Fold this sequence. Notes:
single chain, Nuclear Transport Factor 2, Chain: A, about 35% strand
Amino acid sequence: MLRRIGIALVVLGLLAAGVRMLVLKLASDATKIRWAIQDAAEGFSEARMDPVLAVLAREFRDETSGFGREDLRGALAGAFFGEKDPETKGFPYRCEIADEAIQIEVVKGEPDRATVSFPGKLVDARGGTRREAWSFQVEGRMEERPEGWCFMTTTHETLEGSFRLRAR
């Protein structure tokens, strides 16, 4: 009996993995880009660096700040380890990007490229209250790489607040 349950669980796991691969294969480029951006926002909110860095090419550069991928890695590490909610002891910031606000224009070629634009905000949720710490607009150029869609360059504009989250 336990053997049958074990076999059924393995089959279900393989089926789920196969369905996920099929969905990823059939999704449009715009959908894949949206997923990558939302995964990065979710990763930031959970203080996980890998999803944020996964959407940045190794040679990434933010033209507004001059930051490269490694500069952002250092800034994220500082924020993830240095910022704590005194009540929950967790990372207090949440990144919010409305899915419907992401504008994407894909150009087929070798490699496929896209221009992307979206507003976003970082919310400070310390003590169970929400305070908008920084709202921004991002414009970027992405390329499809073997590892997925990656930002090559971005520019950003502060709409309100500051990326120096404690500045307000």
